[in-house]
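seq as requested:
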Amino acid sequence: MTFDSDVNPEGFAETLSFDVASSSLQNVTLVGIQLPLTKSRAAGQLHLCGQIQTHFRLGSRARLSLYGAGLNIMRADPIAVASETAA
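struct tokens:
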């Protein structure tokens, strides 16, 4: 369904990034994404995503980056139903 010719993704993304004055923690970044998907003759889906990114310095030659993300898909059924009835 993602590569269907009449599915139109549009949305917004926000990023908040700041450096931390710490000996090990270097940077924290927060990302938010809102991605509504619309399909002709169907109500649209809404993908809400959030991500946190952290960057650590473990030593003069070692770094560690940790990422965590969450995804919430709202109103997923109408697009699947529209794809089935169109076929």
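The CA atoms of residues 51 and 69 lie 4 Å apart.
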